[in-house]
Design a protein that fits this description.
The complex is a heterodimer. By secondary structure, chain A is of the alpha/beta class. Chain A has 3 domains: about 190 residues, P-loop containing nucleotide triphosphate hydrolases (Rossmann fold); about 180 residues, no CATH class; about 140 residues, no CATH class. Chain A is about 65% helix and about 10% strand. Chain A has 26 helices and 10 strands. A 7-stranded mixed sheet of chain A has the order 2-3-4-1-5-6-8, sandwiched between helices. In chain A, helix 14 packs parallel to helix 25 and helix 16 crosses helix 23. Chain A is elongated. Chain A starts with a strand and ends with a helix. By secondary structure, chain B is an alpha+beta fold. Chain B has one domain: Roll (SH3 type barrels), CATH 2.30.30. A 6-stranded antiparallel sheet of chain B has the order 1-6-2-3-4-5. The longest helix of chain B is centred in the middle third of the chain and has 9 residues. Classes of the chains: A alpha/beta, B alpha+beta. At the A-B interface, helix 3, helix 12 and strand 10 of A face helix 1 and strand 5 of B. Strand 10 of chain A pairs antiparallel with strand 5 of chain B, so a sheet runs across the interface.
């Protein structure tokens, strides 16, 4: 099969082009010599099946950033028949360097001048014919966003593939070790083919920036945008999530329960409360992930994300993070899972890992449910808002502490230079594809882990089968007992310890598990808990719940996004350790003060 | 025509790059973004609290931290 690689700088519309040409058929996969996943698709071109690979956006084939190395290693280890080089025509005087580099390497290439429509508005004209002549490469202009120029691109691609022969890897390897003499040649080509006006016209972008990056209004506007995005995601997400839960419950009651009615308790429980509930846990994340990435696509593709990075950089750089990390941290207050997945846009691994280590401390909406219930049960109504607010403060404080403590370890060595692209409208299709890809990614990578975890917790709380579920005689109860020397100094008793084991799976089921453990529900459960726990114990339990781990799905996402069990374990161990320490200091301190 | 650090320019000022004192990594990235001796850089705005610089070089807008901008010498004006 012939192989075509897509090459281009960031913000050239490369991914849009890739999505358009491949449809939704793309899959992430591994290629020899490369440690990160790349997006690839197989499409029919003329009579041949052709594999198209979307390489990461890079500025320089000879650079030393991680993405630049990925591209180089890919080219050194996988023979390609054709390289499609996508340029942003509005920045052609800078971007042509990539074409020159590819040409010097002897890569068989086609040059695609994208955003030709936008360049025209800037008054930039390109003599395509002459450019093709001087480069000795086919040149074609198109608009990936509006789909113009595609038919021609398709045909040209087919023709070139018929003629071309794949690049010789040995030669490429040798050539990649050199890099010089390009600059003067590039200047020459540019001087003779491209006209750029001396001053870019004062356009919409400049006018928007003067408001959105305003010294006084910029930050408040940023927080307003974040708040509205956040509200929108969960406004639309909540009914969708409830809908999914409703369908799953109904299917269970009307079909699965009767079907399995005569099976032994252990099998029925394992299938329904274990596997089926595990699948349900996975399913409830799907609407949130789609919505999250729909909105993230808007923020990212319009160019606002770079502006957010600009606004927040002064603070975040001191924490070893960048402005984009702050956006993800905020999103984590809705749900940690998509926030973790969103860090993929950071191309530096150390920066990304540090951000991923911080996000789980964001007090997500599932944890909030638990806190609202317990606060209502234990605290008087007038102090409840204060209690919840203090938990948010703890959430921020632990996140900041984590960043400060680990920033040395995950020191960011890559220079932080971010392009600030002009504002653009993303197309709806682009947004939907993004959401769809992310859901696929989540389902492929995290679902097995999550289902396995739910099954394991079910087993722990139901074995042996001849004692009441989740009682102190089950495996979970025994684990709770074993940990009591550790948990007693925090004021957390055996019953609450079992709830913590449930909470490891998902915070949504903590209240339900307390109902099983105490054998009471709703108001009854509240008054029983108020009777058995004083406020110091309850607050200590909430602190521990806040910090010790968000949920199994977050852990699974940490693992799949970092592709490292060690990193997942570090995150878990750090959260658990910190949770213990914070609760210990609080509980013992409060008791010492006589509360 | 004094040579100053890029980081000392004010909003709206511009300068012509006189020298890049950047280490390998940064140099490469700057070069790829179009930073070369003789090119004009314009400061569009400065981030609050010693935040980054928002600049324009050629047709590209980008942000650069002040610590990195301090490694670039420009002829002001």
């Amino acid at each position: 099969m012939k192989r075509v690689a897509l090459l281009g700088m960031p913000n050239t519309g490369k991914s849009t082009f890739f999505n358009r040409i491949t449809g939704a058929s793309s899959r992430t996969g591994n290629w020899p010599g490369v440690t990160v996943d790349l997006l690839g698709a197989k499409i029919l071109l003329g009579r041949n099946m052709v594999e198209i690979v979307d390489l990461p956006g890079i500025y320089d084939l000879h650079g030393f950033s991680e993405d630049e190395q990925v591209v180089r290693h890919f080219l050194e280890n996988n023979s390609v028949d054709l390289v499609l080089i996508i340029l942003n025509t509005t920045q052609i005087e800078r971007q042509l360097s990539l074409v020159m580099q590819a040409r010097q390497l002897g890569l068989p290439a086609i040059v695609l001048l994208n955003m030709a429509d936008e360049a025209k508005k800037f008054g930039i004209t390109v003599d395509e014919k002459k450019l093709a002549e001087m480069l000795k490469l086919p040149v074609l202009s198109l608009s990936a966003k509006y789909g113009t120029g595609y038919k021609e691109a398709h045909q040209l691609l087919g023709r070139q593939l018929e003629q071309g022969s794949p690049v010789r890897l040995e030669y490429l390897r040798e050539m990649l070790s050199q890099d010089d003499r390009l600059e003067t040649e590039m200047d020459e080509v540019l001087k003779r083919t491209v006209e750029v006006p001396a001053q870019l016209s004062d356009n919409l972008t400049a006018r928007l920036d003067s408001v959105l990056l305003h010294p006084w209004f910029g930050l408040p506007l940023f927080f307003l945008v974040m708040y509205l995005t956040f509200q929108a995601i969960f406004l639309f997400g909540k009914p969708l999530q409830d809908g999914v839960t409703w369908i799953l419950d109904h299917f269970r009651q009307s079909a699965l329960d009767p079907l399995l009615a005569h099976f032994p308790f252990i099998i029925k429980g394992l299938l329904l409360d274990g596997i089926y509930n595990g699948v349900g846990t996975v399913a409830t994340f799907v609407p949130i992930i789609i919505l999250f990435f729909l909105f993230m696509a808007i923020i990212e593709d319009t160019g606002y994300l770079s502006r957010a990075a600009f606004l927040m950089d002064a603070l975040m750089s001191r924490l070893g993070l960048d402005g984009r990390g702050f956006v993800m941290l905020l999103m984590g207050f809705g749900c940690n899972v998509p926030a973790l997945m969103g860090t993929r846009m950071m191309r530096t691994r150390s920066l990304r890992l540090l951000t991923m280590l911080v996000i789980p401390f964001s007090l997500c909406s599932a944890r909030l449910q638990v806190f609202i219930f317990i606060t209502a049960a234990i605290f008087p109504a007038r102090s409840a808002p204060l209690v919840l607010f203090s938990l948010y403060l703890f959430s921020f404080a632990t996140a900041l502490l984590t960043a400060v403590l680990f920033k040395k370890h995950y020191a960011n060595t890559e220079p932080f230079i971010l392009e600030v692209p002009p504002y653009r409208f993303p197309t709806f299709r682009q947004m939907l594809l993004r959401g769809w890809h992310e859901v696929q990614h989540f389902l492929n990578r995290a679902s097995k882990f999550i289902v396995a975890g739910v099954v394991l917790v079910w087993l722990l709380t139901h074995i042996p089968t001849d004692v009441p579920p989740a009682s102190s005689h089950t495996l979970a109860g025994m684990i709770g007992n074993a940990f009591s020397p550790l948990l007693n100094p925090l004021g957390i008793d055996k019953a609450l310890a079992i709830a913590l084991i449930f909470g490891f799976v998902a915070k949504e089921i903590v209240i339900g598990s307390l109902a099983v453990i105490y054998g009471m529900q709703g108001k009854g459960l509240m008054s029983l808990m108020a009777h058995q726990l004083d406020w110091v114990q309850a607050y200590s339990f909430m602190l521990f719940t806040l910090i010790y781990t968000p949920c199994l799905s977050t852990v699974a996402t940490l693992r799949s996004e970092s592709k490292s069990n060690a990193f997942m374990m570090l995150s878990l161990a750090w959260s658990l350790g910190l949770a213990w320490l914070v609760s210990f200091v609080f509980y013992q301190g409060a008791r010492a003060l006589g509360y | 025509m004094a040579i100053v650090k890029l980081s000392t320019l004010a909003r709206g000022e511009s300068g012509v790059i006189a020298a890049l004192h950047a280490e390998d990594d940064l140099y490469h990235r700057l070069a790829a973004m179009g930073f070369r001796v003789g090119k004009r850089v314009e400061i569009l705005r400065l981030g609050l609290f010693s935040g980054p610089l928002h600049l324009r070089i050629g047709t590209t807008d980008l942000m650069l931290r002040r610590s990195d901008a301090a490694k670039i010498d420009v002829t002001a004006g």
